[in-house]
Structure formats: C-alpha cells, structure tokens
Amino acid sequence: MATTAVTPERANYLNAEYGVKSWLLTVDHKRIALLYLLSVTLFFFLGGFFALLIRLELLTPAGDLMQADTYNKVFTMHGIIMVFFFLIPVVPAVLGNFLMPIMIGAKDLAFPRINLLSWYLYVIGGLLILHCMLTGGVDTGWTFYPPFSTSFSNTKVVEAGLAVFVSGFSSILTGLNFIVTVHRMRAPGMTWDRLPLFVWANYATSIVMILGTPVVAITIVLVALERTLHLGIFDPKLGGDPLLFQHLFWFYSHPAVYIMILPSMGVISELITCFSRKRVFGYKFVALSSVAIAVLGFLVWAHHMFVAGMSLYAGLIFSFLSFFVAVPSAIKVFNWTATLYKGSISFTTPMLYAFGFLGLFTMGGLTGLFLAALGVDVHVTDTYFIVAHFHYIMVGGVLMGYLGGMHFWWPKISGRMYPEFWGKLSALIVFLGFNLTFFPQFILGYMGMPRRYWQYPPEFQILNVLSTAGASVLAVGYLLPMIYFVWSMRYGKPAPDNPWNAAGLEWMTSSPPPTYNFDETPVVTWEAYNYEELNKKEEVPVER
Amino acid sequence: MFNNFPLWPERASSLAPGVDALYIFLVILSGFMSVLIFAFVLFFAAKYRRRPGVLAEQIEGSNALELTWSIIPMFVFLAIFVWGAALYYKMRTPPRDATEVYVVAKQWMWKFEHAEGQREINELHVPVGQNVKMIMTSQDVIHSFFVPAFRVKQDVLPGRYTITWFKATKPGTYHLFCAEYCGSQHSGMIGWIDVMEPAQYQAWLSGGTAIPAAQAGQQLFASLGCVTCHRADTQGRGPNLVGVAGKPVLLEDGRTVTADDEYIRESILNPGAKIVAGFKPIMPTFQGMVTEEQLNELVAYVKSLNQTPLNQIPKPTSVTQNNSAPSGAPQMQVQ
After folding, report:
1. Mutate to test the interface with A, among B25, B29, B37 (most CBs of A within 10 A)
2. Which domains occur in chain A, in start order?
3. Is B80 exposed, middle or buried (0-12, 13-18, 19+ CB in 10 A)?
4. Model ipTM?
5. pLDDT (tens digit, 9 = 90+) per residue, A105-124?
6. Which one of A124, A232, A271, B116 is separated from A318 by 20 to 30 angstroms, measured CA to CA?
7. Residues 64-83 of chain B whose Cβ lies under 8 A from any Cβ of chain A
C-alpha cells in the first residue's frame, strides 16, 4: 500500500467535480484548504510588497521614497495583512484544514458548512481591508493604540477594524470546528496519546483562538464606538484610560503569537520524526508543552507594557510569568534535537526547512529572554530589537514551518512531486536572506533606533542597508517555491501515496486523497510515529 | 557615505552600565545556548545521516533528561528575572534629591520646563552628575521619552503623569527619540539632551531670565482664585496645602493616599475623585481652564509649599520667558 503509483484516472478530491461552483460551494475540507491556500498566498504577497516598500524607504536616512503619511499607512497595512490575514490563518487554515481530519481518520471536519463559512468570513474581511486600503488606508499601526486611533487619526480606522473584526470570526469558527473534530471524530483506536503532534498543536491553537479572539473583537468594537460616538472608554479627554486598551489588546494579541507559532511547531514535529526515521523523543512532553504554551500564553500579555505606565509591581509579575512561558518552548527545542540522536537522517527540502526553523526559532526564543528581562526591555522595547525578535518568531519560525510543511505534504495535496533541487535551494536562500534581513535589526535596536520611523539619524544607515539587501534575497527565496509549486502541478512527477515512507494516516490514503479521505474508516492499532515498523518495511527507499 | 558606523550606543548615564551588563550577559548566554543547540543538531545530522542498511534506533524519551532541561533553564530564567527586576526597580524609583523637569509632549515636539523656570523645546540641558526626574504628560496621544545613551524609556500619556529619571555621567549631546508611534511626524519628534559640566550648566541657567515654575504656579494660584479656599490656615473651605505634598492624606471614604504629583494633578482636574476627610466636594474642575504647562506650574507650586512659607518665595524679577531654541546642536534633517 505504501508505494502504489497513482493512476491519473483514480477518483480524488480534485477531479471529483469541476467548475467554479464546485469550488465556491464545496464543503470538502481539502478543497476549502486550497481556497485558503490561494487567498492567504495572495495576502502574503501583498503584505510582502508592503514590506519591500518599507525596506526601500529605509535604505536611506532621509524620508525620500514616499511621504511620512504614506509610510505610516504602508507599515500599518503590512502589519494588519501579515498578522490577521496571513500568519494567523496560514498554518491552521491551510495545512490544518487539509490534514487534521485525515490525520485522525475522519471523513471531514465536524462542521463542514461552518468550515466554508469560515473561509467566506475570511474573504469578506479580506475584501474589507482591501477596500480600506484602496480608499485611503489607515495609519495607526496594526496595534490601533488610542487615543491616536480614536481621536486623532484621520484615516479609515473603523473600516480596518471592521475587517479585522470579521476575519476574527473566521478564526473563532475554525478553532471551534477543530476542537469538536478532535474530540468527536477520531477513528477507532486513535486515542489521545496516538494523535500526531500536529493535531495536538492545532488543538492547543484552537483553544487560544476561541478564548482570545472574542476579546480583540470586543476591543475593536469599543475603539469604533469611541471614534464614532465619542464614548469615553480609552481617551482620557473623554474620561477613558488608554492603558485599558493596551491590556485588552495584548490579552489577545500576545496569545495570537502562539496561534501563529504552535501549528508550525506541530509541523516541525512531523518533519523531524519522518526524516530521522524515529518516534519523537518525549511524545508526552512535546504534546503537553503545546497545551502549556497555550495556557501560560494567556498570563503574560502585559510584558508588552513595561514602559507603558503600568505600576512597578505589575511589571514584576508579568516579567516573572513571561520567563515561565519560555520553558515549554525550550522543552520542544531540546526534544526535537534529541529526536535526531541515533536517527537515520536525510536532507530533503522539508528537513532543511525544519533545520532552518530550529535555528531561527532558537534565536527568536532566546532574544525573547532579553525582552522579558525588565531592565533590558526598557531600553529595547519599541526599537528595532523587538521588530527583529518577533520577525524571528513570526516569520522565521512560522514561515519555515509552513514552507517545510507545504513541501512535505505537497505530494499529498497536489498529487505531484516538487523539484527537489529547487526546493533545497529555496530553503537555503530563505534562511540566509532571513538572517541578513533581521539580524542587523537586533544591533540597530540596541543602538536605539525606534520602530515605525520613516526617517532616521545617519549613524543607523549601514545596518539598514544590510537589512534591505537581505529583504531582497528573502523575496527571491519566497518567490521560488511559489513558481515551482505551480510548475509542478502540471509538470511534476506524479506522487506515490507515501513518497517519504512516513507515518500517519494521511500517508495511508491515496495522493491526492478521495473526497471522503478513506475508502473505509481506518482502525488504528499503532502509536504515532511508528517508524520502527515502517523502517523494516522499507524495501524501496525513495531516491532523493 | 558611511563614515560613521557605531555598533554600540553611547553610555552616558548611571543606569547604562547596569543595563549593558545584563545585556552582555544575555548575549553570551544566548550565544552559548545557540551554539550548543546548533552544534548538537549539526553533529547529529552528520553522524546519523542516512546510510544504507543502518536503521534508526527507536528511543522513547527520558524523564530524567526532560526534567533536567526544564529545571535548569527555569533557574537560569529566575536569575535573569531577579537581575532584570533589580534594574527596573532602580529605573522606576527616582532618588529623592533629584531636580525636577516637567515635560509636555505633543504631536510632534517635546516641551520642557525646569524647576528654575527655563523653558525649552526639543532640547534639554542638564548638568552631569545630577539626578534629574522627568515628570511627563502628553497634550494629545501617547508618546515615549527614549534616550538610548541613558538606557531610559518611559511612555508619556495624556491625562496623567508618568515619571522617569536619570543621572547623566558624560557631557555630550544625545538623541531624545519618541519611541511610541504618534502619527505623521513620529520620526521627526526627535530632540537632544545636552549634558553639561555643572559650571557650564549654571552659566546656561543664569543666561536667560525666567520665573521659577513654582513661582509661576503661585501667580496662577492667585489669579485662578484657588487661594480663596486653600488658605494657609485652617479656616479655608478647602484643605490647607502647606506641607501636604508627598505626605499621606486621609480621604473622606476612609482610604489614605499619598499626595504625589499625580494626586495633585487629579485634584485640580477632577476634584471630586478623592475628597480629603472633613471637606465637602465643592471644588469646581479646572479641566480645560489650564494648559498642561500651567497645570505643571500649579503642581510645582503646591509642592514648593513644603519648603518655603508662601510669603518668602522671591517675587519675579521679569516675566520674559526663556524659550531657548535649539542652539548649536546638530539637527536631523526633516523634509
């Protein structure tokens, strides 16, 4: 069963139906995943275009490429699009949507129609933000801090808020769907301690989505009410308190970072086990550390506010708690490393991305310690240090995991193999380009260059030039996979059912899977990552 | 084009060496940890690379190892927490002998008023070796007072005071940045801190003619009519303010609060919020009737009542204000 070649005639979710309507009204989680793939990719390139504009403006100290107001709108749009329309949905809604039901042996998610509704809400939110962008834009930063956003900005704050509000419901419904699916839809024998770690990670993510997202939705409504009806909630001139906003905003937006990174961590667990041919080291610790991150992640929000005017003691408590959320992340990194020990490691594209993830996430995580340490945070917060830190996590970590996962599961998704040489090249370019872009920003930040600056004193120029150079390399690294994935859909080698001889139910069905995933419901009698058996059966090793 | 390329910020305050020490420690620690992890990953990747006929060895895990690599980091983190917290405590606790500067931030400039009355815009002169406390508020949105050379940053909020302090240790001119995004010209909201030798600073101080902030406050106190209720005896309809500042105050609802800058400010803008025990809530609000600068002067005046009896504050010699424009300091080009 492992290496049966696919005959093109075989019925699968892609050739089951044709035509625009069959896609727009589909309730198949795999097709919906592809709808998401298309839409988040569009937003990624739009957000990336804004990133490139930012880097070009910062090539020189003077504000010469665009007006200050334009620059402010550009970095705001970069943030809003990348955070709300790319990073938050990307791994759960594309890979999670496609894989979760298959991985647990289910025919679909628990609520297929709600799943489609999630995508429509995402698209409506997306169209609203595009409309906002095309009719003037917004200049508050993705953080919408009042009273600037409620009483001073002359841009389309309410429109942007509405877009984020609507897309937030997409995320809530996806989280709800995943939780119910994992609880109710597991195949016989698929017990909690046999779940693939990618499922655990998405489960933990879903908890954060349904608990956190409503808070930011309410907060945005309050901003809109203050802006339109002058209710005094945040603006002190109207009797409000601007710190209240920051507490509410970060109560969601800090856990949101875990919404982004946890699913990618799940991907990494799948990749490292497969290409080391091993069960994961410390399954329970890796699985439960995801849950620990999700829970502890809700207790650290005010570490974004150490210089915001909070009391000294609030600062102490939130710093203390922030160090604790670092522990489960460290556990994961150590366990992944230990998984390599005595493995049989092959250097495929997905594995190179996983190595890249380990490198970038480790650096992102360790620089998080600088920011949790109060005395250092005061100096580096709101500078390029923090910009570098969160890009290491949110772009370095999340995107490395996502791209690694896309290469790993592309044969399953498309039924075609991607070109391995170009894949390896892209992994290398992304890794180098990323470090060249963001490493200089740590130094810039410690030197004191504040973030969101349209122009800057000349002593910061060299590091900014390096960063911009890196960004252009990075852009090539991101464009490459996009090109050869599209190319492979037509010209790629047809993929066998299990090209990697990998563990997991998704590899036991055909590539691409049939509409209901399995011809008959599988009965699971083995643990996750049963590479011991698979290694023995490995008669035809894949030539890579 | 690239003639100046520093990689480390200037170190010009008493707080800076402490912050740098923790920072360097963290750089070494995370450098060590990264190298360690990367070394393990690369070593394993090379040593256990796929070879024909060699199967991976299946390992369940190890509770002992899991505990080791959870507990050791936890203690290291705890140590970093304590170190960082000690620095933070110092940053957030201005020394008692600090001279005070009132700061009003607005889109997109910094306005300073020294206790001696000098007023400055986007440039602040301070003497080397003197603790200086910044009592800051914003006229509009949130700004952030950030002097990289001092390793000091504090958001400046509308509607209340926030406090920060520093002791400059090296004469020179240092950047003052706004670090909280505040609108169109956020990146143009850059000022300078001129740190001067004490003698030079004295000369600079006596250069202009200025009314001390407290004295300006006294004039306002009279002209706004505050003085009719807040008398320097026990007969007024409002509390006697002599000796109040910095002391605990018993409130009508039984609570006790400290009469710090924030409390005095609040009592002027929102007098009903905290009523002193034994008095009636009859004071009108002065919200909108006084500017942020005037408010600062009133606060400075109330605080001055602790030091000098009312009648001994010297009369103003002149009413001209010293709005010193940025002098010789290099200015960033704003286009």
Report:
1. B37
2. 26-531 (1.20.210.10)
3. buried
4. 0.92
5. 999 999 999 999 999 999 99
6. A232
7. 65-66, 69-70, 73-74, 77-78, 80-81, 83
